Every structure is written in C-alpha cells, then in structure tokens.
Amino acid sequence: MICSIIQLDQPRHDVFQPRETLSGTFRLVDVELEDVGHLEFSVVWYTEGKGDEDIGVHFFETLDWTNGMLGAAASGEDGLPSRNSVCRASETADDGACFRFSVTLPASPLSYYGMILKIRWCVRVRIFLKSGRVLKSEKHFTIGKIPNVQVDLN
Known about the structure:
0% helix, six-stranded mixed β-sheet, Immunoglobulin-like, single chain, mainly beta, four-stranded antiparallel β-sheet
C-alpha cells in the first residue's frame, strides 16, 4: 500500500513547547520516486467542533522535480535540513525515499482539547502521483499544556 510514514525525532509523547524545534523524517513507502509528480509538506493547525472550522498554515513547502527538491539529497555537512526546511535525506530506506524536516514552532495557538472546540496541530504530507492519485498522511502533536476544563453541571 502506497503511503508516507512520518516520525518525529523527539521521544516525548509528541508534546512540544512554543518556539521549540519540531524535527523528524518522513519516508515514502511502496512508491518509486519517479512516479511522484510532487510532494507537499506542511505544519498546520486546525479547529474541530461547533461552528466554522478554521485552518492555519505555519509552514509549507512543495517538493518537485523542477525545484530539484525531489531528486537532490541534503548537502549539509550533517545531512540535516536547516531550520524551517524540508529536504531529501542522503540515506534511503529499503522500502522508499526518505526526507528530513526541521520547523521552529510558533508561540500560538496552543493545542486545546475542549468539549466544544479543539485546536489540533499536525505534520501533513501529501503525495501527488503522476497518475493523478493523491495520498495524505498526518502525524498529530501537541503544543503547550493547557489543563482540561472541568464543567460542573449541578
């Protein structure tokens, strides 16, 4: 099954502080890189719940053949992307191409999991195949620690 697998470098149960650096990898599974038209990598927040749903894009990058980002591997001394970037990793997994990312998180909005409204953050990868098929993968994480709201209905 064609997909992308997103992994975060920090092993802290996916909880980050504002302005902290979010870094990790994503790899394409069961797809040849030559079959990919382009990729979209983003770090976004969105709301769920009552009322209109909103989305905010904190970081967005298109990787395609014309900008060289699909074919070229990272050329940094340590093979890691610079801050607020995504690049093809110099290593390749046995089952697909690997990419590294590094993004400094914003001060707000913080993640919030209320009864009426939720604010969620995620790393999102969309794969646009040359055949016209589009695949999406997401890895959710939390920014900040807001206590749960206690509601007394008595």
